[in-house]
Amino acid sequence: MNVARAYRLLLGVSTLVLATGADAQVRREFTAVHMGVPVRMVLHSSSDLVASKAARAAFARIAELDDKMSDYRPQSEVRMLSQRPGDWQTVSPDLFAVLARAEEVSRNSGGVFDVTLGPLVQLWRETRQTRRLPDPDVLSRARSRSGAPMFEVDIEHSAVRLWVPNMRLDLGGIAKGYILQEALKTLRTHGIRSALVEAGGDVVVGDPPPGQAGWSVFVAGGDTATLRRAKALSNVAVATSGGSEQFVEIGGVRYSHIIDPRTGLGATGRHIVTVIAEDAALADAAATALSVLGPERAAGFRKKYPQVLVSFRTLPEPSR
Ligand code: AMP
Ligand code: MG
Fold it and tell me: Mutation test of ligand 1: which of 288, 290, 291, 301 has the most ligand atoms closer than 8 Å to its C-beta?
């Protein structure tokens, strides 16, 4: 073989290796339980090693944030806030980001979304077990420790203030979105741009899978713009609220696990809502708020967030 031919052959082989090397992407899935639910990640990565390292780091970030924001853990940063009623307290940047967004969504939803409803969420968990509505006195005591006006946010100093003793912030309607988006960011710092992270009704996606227009995600409702968008998603969050598994039926009325601040009890609307938004904490909180507002009362809220896509599905009344 002459030198020129051997050189051409060598060049050909190395180009082939480079070409497959650049395109070769492995698709890997990882699942672990965090925040009380399975968290699933789908990653497209250059190698198994990169994928598993990135997934480990992302799960560690989820655990770190859950430690701060969980109302189940007595020592969590969010639980500690209740110990100094009346004082301004500075909080970590992550918790502040969630609390500031929560306060904004609360204002824009006329207080329907409200992270101060912790005492009522606790009470409602008991109700779901006993299937008996709370005693009016117990309900009114829980209400006296809950309510949007008792919670203030100082954007300039990253500080918050709770007004009355024994308040309890419950971030169950917003933290998951924030945490999943942070997990996606962690994957990105490990070189993975094309990924999906999902848990309990919330999904966040990065760049599309290789060779595809985007990720496809199930949407509960029938709004055509949202459905079309949900077929090719990238760099966006999708949240669904009001699903049926957590309903309780008492005296012929079906109550959701989401509290209606007007009654202090589970909301009775039968709305399932899917929201698509760039910010995952906003998507999560908006879905929770809109599942209580329902399509009839949603107009004012939707005007505040014109970029957010919303799709409702209302379950039919059961036939008796
Ligand atoms: P999601 O599944 O995102 O709709 O959130 C539901 C969770 O949010 C509940 O399990 C409670 O922890 C919390 N929550 C309940 N009612 C409200 C409300 N009105 N505003 C904000 N969070 C709530
Ligand atoms: Mg939510």
Answer: 288
